[in-house]
Amino acid sequence: MCKDCGCSITDNHSHHHEEHHHHHNHGNPTLEDKKTVEVITKILDANDKQAESNRKHFDEHGVFAVNLMSSPGAGKTALLEKTIEMLNDELKIGVIEGDLETNRDAERIKQKGAPAYQITTGQACHLDAFMVHDGIHHMPLEELDIVFVENVGNLVCPASYDIGTHLNVVLLSVPEGDDKPAKYPVMFRSADLLLITKVDLIDYFDFNIEKAIEETRKLNPKVDVMIISTKDENSLKNWIDFIKMKSSLRKVRT
Amino acid sequence: MHELSVVQSLIGLIEQNAIQNNANSVSKVIVKIGKLSGIEPHLLKLAFDSFKEGTICQNAELEMIIQDVVAKCENCQKEFEIKDNSFVCPNCKSFNLQVIDGEDMYLMSLELDVGV
Ligand SMILES: Nc1nc2c(ncn2[C@@H]2O[C@H](COP(=O)(O)OP(=O)(O)O)[C@@H](O)[C@H]2O)c(=O)[nH]1
Ligand SMILES: [Mg+2]
Ligand SMILES: [Zn+2]
Ligand SMILES: [Zn+2]
Fold it and tell me: Do residues B20 and B87 touch, judged by C-beta distance below 8 A?
């Protein structure tokens, strides 16, 4: 049982090798002794285990879960609003909001008719798997096909945390500049899909799309790329088809 | 910056190991920090030294091993260091790489003071 919520997910308790260390005092009269132990465990081990448990929560309900990451203002919430609109009840979407830049984001999503839960993380600069787990239990998973997690606007910290979603989407907006992939390699390496956003503004900025893609693929050769603008529904067609396809692939049961 | 949250996780993990080993305190902590783990080693050290007060790590020295990014080519099986964040095999130019080190943060070992 998931001990926080009583849901049917088994908790991934770490299996620590019980080191029955019997300390022998070889005639040494001192009362303190030093002992070196090998641990070799990931520092974020507890987070990673919670992330696995989160994925099981999603999988149990056939829900496709997406982690949206970007700088503040790259267009995560605008993309979600548009996505909910364009899917138009074909698929049911829920949103876990972690972006603290504006606490109005969850309200923006609810206005589009989708359930949204605002994670209140204080000053946290990223979401971790425990915060997302809390968010999951505020989502009506049984009614949903897709859950989007809007991560905190930040190109550094969120990249270090597995939150238990299935797909990492990183948004890079035209006004931010094409040098960001090279400057934030850990984030752009973590992307399964890169969305170059606000492409309607391309004429006003020195943003070389080819260079942005090339630098991302140097770091992350297998990344997929789409070029979009929330002002142009045609540019979002691929995105919508992709989301539909991925969602259907999470529903396959053996 | 998330160095403080990383330190919180680190100290939690150390406490767990210290209890299992009946330790009274920790005198040394050795961690391995990958160059592409997303963490700044000097900030991690600063965060550790300010956060350790009042914990089992109060008197602990933090030693950091900075790990280069190492990959193995799935095509030609060569192992090499990734330089310049270029994820292509220098031998056969394949993109089919498995990163085997340098992207994570590990607690490697602890030196504990144990009561006799
Ligand atoms: N021109 C243009 N503006 C956009 C686009 N997408 C978002 N914006 C604007 O960018 C600003 C920040 O968007 P928001 O979705 O709140 O970004 P978030 O912080 O990543 O969630 C808002 O004023 C949006 O209207 C786009 O495709 N084109
Ligand atoms: Mg937002
Ligand atoms: Zn941070
Ligand atoms: Zn090779």
Answer: no
